[in-house]
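hey so i finally got around to running the thing on that chain from the lab meeting. sorry it took forever, my laptop kept dying and i had to restart like 3 times. anyway pasting the input first so we r on the same page abt which one it is
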Amino acid sequence: MPSRPRRPVATEPPAAQVSHAVLGYARVSTGHQVLDQQLDALAAAGVSGRVFTDTMSGMRDDRPGLAELMAYARAGDTVTVVALDRLGRSLSGIVQTVKTLGERGIVLRSLREGVDTSTSTGRMVLGIFASLADYERTLIAERAAAAREAARIRGRQVGRPSALTAEQVAMTVRMRSAGESVGDIGRTFGVGRSTLYRLWSNTGELPDAAMIRPDRGAHR
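ok and heres what got predicted. didnt touch it at all, straight out
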């Protein structure tokens, strides 16, 4: 009896493999500094994708290189920096950037600190940093409240003064460095945003605090 021909076995096409980029970010504060050392370290660490750079203070909110990186990176990508302080000058600002990356499923590696958010140890270290940032904000808020109370007891004006003392300006700088918003700082000292901007500009304490955070560009 002749055998029946076998039916061809249907095969599914192989699933498309999603490639994840290994990106880098480097920053120097002034034009007198160079990025070469950071770029070499990133290349040695295996950064094969794009490297985004900035030449400006880490206190600024309008860093175009960082904004472009945040818009370009997608879930599964890895962002590598030479050190966490390249992401910003304040601890709370660094923690916020790392948190944003994590919420989007983007891994962060910091070479100096040995942080890798794809590992449980790396996430634990960043959790400690987040706790320290909260502690820093609490201390600054307590000091500001104590300063207001001391001024009230001595009969000094605690409402909207025409100007702040040098000590108060220094306090606003520390609050801004800890991640406090300009609006909250103004309400704490009873002054408007424009007054803070003018004081920071005149004293040179925080000349770039008035910069506005840019809109993120389109994804790649």
